[in-house]
Every structure is written in structure tokens, then in C-alpha cells.
## 1
Amino acid sequence: MDIYDNDNVFAKIIRNEIPSDRIYEDEEILAFHDNSPVAPVHIIIIPKLAKITGPSELLESDSLLIGKMVVVATELARNLGIDKSGFRLVMNNGLDAGQTVPHIHLHLLGGEPLSSLASKG
């Protein structure tokens, strides 16, 4: 199990120490526009209270939280008008997968045709 860093960028966003362009917030979930988008729509969805660094730390008891993150992402896709044309939900785990912030998060991507998920390098 990785040690959770309370000073990671998403923890600071949750505490309003770093500004973010918030698009959704409730007691458990925060969603905001990514500062370095890879698609016209690029939203980050994070849990506010869970101190989980990535998917590999998830337990069965986290199922409701992760399910809520997916439901919020789907509602946002609908609100942003990309639910019919298509969108992608991505959750990275570790450096090899491209995870740059050690706080579990879900990317909502869409607004244009997206490239394939992975390419051979």
C-alpha cells in the first residue's frame, strides 16, 4: 500500500489551496476541468475524503464510492452534450499507466473522436 501524500495537487484542490474550474461538487465527489486537457472535454472526478492513491488500493468496501464517481462522470457527459456522440472514462494506476497524481481519480474525455486506448511504442 502506498502512503497517501496529503500535499498532492488534488488534495490541495479539495482544500481550496489551489484554484480549479469546478464543474460539480457534493460531500463526497469533486469534478473540475483538467488544466492540461487532452480532449475538448477533459474533466477530472475525484473523491474528496478517500485517501486512496490509485485503483490498486481499492477494496470491495470502496465499490459505492467508485460507482458514484462513474455516475457523476456520466451525468457530466450528459450535461456537456457528449453522451450521445461518445465519451471515455479512464482511471490510471501507476507511472507506467501515466498516473501523475497519487490520488485516485477518473478522467472524463470526449468532444471529438478519440484515438485508440494504447499504442505500441
Note: The chain has one domain: 9-110.
## 2
Amino acid sequence: MTFEENKINDFLTFFDSIKHIVNNFPGCNGMQLLQDKQHPFIVFTYSNWQDESNLETYRNSDDFKRIWSTIKPWFAQKAEAWSVDVHFNGFKKKS
């Protein structure tokens, strides 16, 4: 997501207030917020869902509608989203 440069702090503050909603949504296995080091007004959310139906339930929820309606006016560009399959995972598992 690319935000207006003067809105990134608003987004980060708002995100801190709602991150638990998405992270704890039924079917969500976890979420991260990643911020570009060179262009800090560009951020990515990475979330892992049990299956596509859980993600669709979230996308159709009142929580998503409220979150999206708050942040959408802050975008500098149209947001993009992808659903992907993992072909390799080199991250270390916690023991």
C-alpha cells in the first residue's frame, strides 16, 4: 500500500490500534506489517490464512469494512493484493 507521505504516521497509529483484530480473526494464522526502508510511506501486510474461505469471511466482515473505509482515503495509489501459494519456506521454525 502506498500512502500519501503526510498520512503514513496516521496509518501506523491506526494500524497499532487494529492489528489485533486481523491477527486474531478466525482462520488467520498470523500477520506482519512490513515497511519499505527507502520509501517509508510504502507498507505491505503479509497474512497467512487457514484457507481462502477464512480470508473471504474477513474481507466481508464489518471489521474489514471499517478498517478499509478509514485507510482508503490515505492512499496515494490504488492498493494491490495477492493470494499466493508457498513453494519454498526458508524461515526458521521456532522450537
Note: The CA atoms of residues 24 and 30 lie 8 Å apart.
## 3
Amino acid sequence: MREVISSPNAPAAIGPYSQAVRATGTFVFLSGQIPLTPCGELVQGSIAEQCEQVMANLDAVLKASGLGFHNVVKSTILLSSMDHFATVNEIYGRAFPENPPARATFAVAGLPRGVDIEIEMVAVA
């Protein structure tokens, strides 16, 4: 079973992907979110402002899936620079006060629209 999930409270896909996909009725795979508002405006402020928007987008997609951050089992954080790690870690960590998911964090050569952060997640219903 495969179900595409979409939330109007997060930015629409800007390419050939879905905001999230539920697989076999249990797993939900959330596409990477960048700091776009639900209206599609790019947040160009500090890494903290960008991260806050990314987390809000992920929260909206999780809620559209009937889930929350407590359902996340794996996440991947992509950063334009590891200099952003501490700030992102603090903001990201607020979503996971207990039993955080497995995670990988990478610095990459570039991200869509020149942003500084992208986060993707896998959740379990």
C-alpha cells in the first residue's frame, strides 16, 4: 500500500516528489523540507529562522499524516556548513525532548534555492 500525504500548511512540492508517503500502512517517509513558508516564500534569515520554518513544515506534514514528532524514527539533516550544527541541534532538539530518533547530519556542497538547511524524516504510525 502506498498513500501520498499532503498538507496545505507546508509548502507544496517544488519538484517531482510528495510531501510524504505512507508505506504499508505503517511507515511515513517525509520528503526533505527547506525553509519555505506554506505560501512558497523563502525564509532568508539566520540559520535559526530557517530551521524554525523547516521544523514547522515537518510538523505540518506529520500532522497531515496523523502523526507527530514522537513518531519519527529517523531523520537526516543537510546543512550548507557544519558551522550551523549547534544552532540547528538546539532548535531540532526541542521537538524531541525524550527518546530522539536516529539521525545523520551532513554538510553538503549545495541545497535547493541556495538555502542553508534541509531536513527529511521517516516516521512510524
Note: The longest strand covers residues 72-79.
## 4
Amino acid sequence: MAEADFAGSTAHIIDWVGKERPSQAMLVTECSMASNVADAHPEVEFLGPCNMCPHMKKITLQKVLWSLHSMTGQVEVEPDIAAPARRAVQRMIDLSRWLAA
């Protein structure tokens, strides 16, 4: 990552490509994420591998719903990682409530 021009979330990568407007960019990410960036900027030639994440496709809405109903499938996250993630989720909840009002 130290050698990269930019590293970030899919949304941040889409924004960065939109601002910088490179003719070519290399993405090293999960395939569906690479597709999202490429779809947002068809004028850019994207190079590099996409990596199929064997775990990402295992998460489905049905499995999330089942886990919430049964309160099983506990995931433990370190507090220093959980705190910013909790803030992000809370902001999404707050925004959805604000938009619904």
C-alpha cells in the first residue's frame, strides 16, 4: 500500500478516479469491487488482477436474517476496529432516519 497512489474503500476509489482522471489505473481488489469502479468510470482502462474472495460470497441476506433471528454466528472484533465501524453503521442508521423523516 505504501507504493500505491491511493488506497481506500470502493466509494473512495471511485471518487479518486473521478478526480484524478487517469487514462489507466491498476486495481488490486475483489472482483465485484473492481467491476463497480470500472462501471463508474468506463473511460479509464483498468489493469491488474481481481481476486475472488472465497468468504465474501458466503454472506447472503438470508444468512444475515437467520443469524439476527437466532442470535447465532457471533463475530468478535477487536475494540479498536469495532469503534470506527460502529460509528459508520450508526451514521448510516441516522442518515436513513433523517431521510425517512
Note: The first strand starts at residue 24 and ends at 26.
